[in-house]
Design goal:
By secondary structure, this protein is mostly beta strands. The chain has one domain (7-64). It is built from one helix and two strands, in the order ββα. Strands 1-2 form a two-stranded antiparallel sheet. The termini are far apart. The relative contact order is 0.14.
Amino acid sequence: MLDGSLQHPDLGDIVCVFATGAYCYTMASTYNGQPRPAIVFVRDGKARVVTWRETYDDLMARDL
């Protein structure tokens, strides 16, 4: 979409954010029980996962 609007995402869609600012992932919190997304770098058409997406098991592993 060229007008800058966001289409309604469907389950299973991938959302790409090109620039998130300096503190997006490092300041992310899981206080609301939502796992953090993966981080993927893309250069010259090649993708590289640099941080794997968290699972609910990852979140529960932090609980005592």
